[in-house]
Specification:
This protein is about 40% helix and about 15% strand. By secondary structure, the protein is an alpha+beta fold. Helix 1 packs across helix 11, helix 4 runs parallel beside helix 11 (about 265-305) and helix 7 packs parallel to helix 8 (about 180-190). It starts with 8 loop residues before the first helix and ends with a strand. It binds pyridoxal-5'-phosphate.
């Protein structure tokens, strides 16, 4: 690396700003906290001092020319990217800016159906048309897999006019597709590759990790620095590949369509400091995370009944690689659904897991975890099995429900519609999403036909206590369908 990764230009500029003792006659109106002592007591003076607006010495996120630009250049180098944008509206905005940068209304994008709602929302906003690739499901675990190369090739052959291919790297559960091969296939057909790395920040820093998007030659990547990279919630990076042939100015004008003109310096400095921390210490931090996850996996598997899976799942195709930092545990063989274990851990043991679904619970392991926390999780899982476990639950039929696409997400979302009871909606075309959150992967999305199978899955998820969302009706009793 040729730049000095020990620098943190935004953070350093804020330190200089603090020393200046500037008198603020600009927003925010709390004026370094003096205007709201309650908030200052809660967040502390340090936060309030740097919760400031754009100004000459601090640059401007919408048009960065000094310290934000320097920080973006450092981040680009650390991630092996041609350019890095600092994003303050979540990875949602990174995913959406990626899609809007390379696709226009009516263009096609090849995309696995197990994407996060932010990607399908981008299709609603833009009128871009999805060509879904069935990611397949592990029949025992019930988790969606990566895209197989044969399926991606078929989608490309049948849709040679598609503008881009979208890839999750990794999925929530740690599954990676063969990204390098997908990049090769896409580029040979003139298609761009956009990668959702919301769960993949660490892939840029750890040794022996699945390949990251920039190393695989992808064109753009949305990286949730706030998920496993240590920055504050809502901060994110949008990377553009060195050879992507996508101009920085074009992407910035897309970002500026929807991004705030008041970028938070708390978020921006957290990105700057997190990049510095990982660029200088990332390898050892990631090694520690893998060690903790491997230890936890071995201990969970020693309990019996639970299955904490790892790279034994790799099959060279739809599970091309596995991210070992993820601690995913299959629970049905102890007689409990993942969501039941999730709820018991939260309600009885004060342990907050990242997600529980019908078959699995997932813990995110990071450098912030202590051994004693992991021991506590393992012993709580053992006790839950002893107190509440039974024979083992019947395996679910985890067939992937391949949706019938009737209209574009945009047409359905904005089209003529009516609200009807969800359980009477079989055969109708949905104008809304229904999903469990997390993971935020739609069970049904706008433009797709509701079927008895899909309704059964929704009802089962609701009855099992999954946190359901997506419809205007907060109780998910009614759904808007096309007239
Ligand atoms: C795969 C994936 N992509 C994108 C996002 C959106 O990230 P954010 O919540 O930062 O907007 C998430 C959030 O969980 C996600 O899981």
């Amino acid at each position: 690396m040729s730049l000095d990764q020990k620098k943190a230009p935004i953070y350093e500029a804020l330190e200089r700003y603090n020393d200046m003792r500037v008198v603020p006659f600009d927003v925010p109106g709390h004026k370094h906290g003096k205007g709201n002592p309650l908030l200052t007591d809660f967040l502390g003076q340090t936060c309030m001092n740097v919760d400031v607006n754009s100004m000459k010495p601090l640059d401007n996120l919408c048009h960065p020319v000094s310290v934000i630009r320097e920080a973006e250049n450092l981040a680009a180098e650390a991630f092996g990217a041609g350019h890095c944008f600092f994003m303050v509206n979540g990875t949602t905005s990174s995913v959406q800016s990626m899609i809007l940068s390379v696709c226009k209304e009516g263009d096609k994008i090849i995309i696995p159906r197990n994407v996060h709602r932010s990607a399908i929302n981008a299709l609603i906003i833009s009128g871009v048309l999805p060509v879904y690739v069935d990611p397949g499901v592990d029949m025992k675990l019930g988790i969606p897999l990566g895209m197989s190369i044969a399926d991606v090739r078929r989608a490309m052959d049948e849709n040679p006019d598609a503008k881009a291919v979208f890839v999750n790297n990794p999925t929530y559960y740690g599954i990676c597709s063969d990204l390098s091969k997908i990049v090769k296939m896409a580029h040979s057909r003139g298609m761009k590759v956009l990668v959702d790395e919301a769960h993949g920040t660490h892939l840029y820093f750890g040794a022996n990790m699945p390949i990251n998007a920039m190393a695989a030659g992808a064109d753009m990547a949305a990286v949730s620095m706030h998920k496993t990279g240590g920055s504050l919630t809502q901060s994110s990076f949008l990377l553009v590949g060195k050879k992507a042939g996508i101009t920085e100015g074009h992407v910035r004008s897309i970002i500026n369509l929807t991004q705030t003109t008041s970028g938070s310096y708390l978020l921006l400095s957290s990105l700057d400091i997190a990049r510095k921390y990982y660029a200088t210490r990332g390898r050892e931090l990631c090694a520690q995370v893998v060690k903790s996850a491997e230890y936890a996996r071995a201990e969970v598997n020693r309990i019996g009944g639970y299955y904490a899976y790892s790279d034994e799942l790799v099959n060279g195709d739809s599970i091309f690689a596995f991210d070992k930092t993820k601690l995913s545990v299959y629970t049905r063989d102890v007689g409990l659904e993942g969501i039941e274990v999730y709820d018991k851990l939260r309600d009885l043991y004060d342990i907050q897991m990242e997600l529980g679904d019908l078959g699995n619970v997932l813990a995110i392991i990071s450098p912030g975890d202590r051994w004693k926390d992991i021991e506590r999780l393992v012993s709580a899982l053992a006790e839950i099995k002893r107190r509440y476990g039974s024979e083992g639950k019947k395996q679910l039929d985890h067939r992937y429900i391949n949706p019938e696409i009737v209209s574009s997400p945009k047409q359905a979302f904005y089209g003529e519609q009516e609200s009807i009871p969800i359980m009477e909606s079989a055969g109708r075309v949905s104008c809304e999403f229904v999903m469990c959150y997390p993971p935020g992967i739609p069970i049904i999305a706008p433009g797709e036909r509701l079927t008895p199978e899909i309704l059964e899955y929704i009802e089962h998820s609701k009855n099992s206590g999954c946190f359901m969302t997506g419809t205007e009706d907060m109780d998910i009793e009614y759904i808007r369908v096309m007239k």
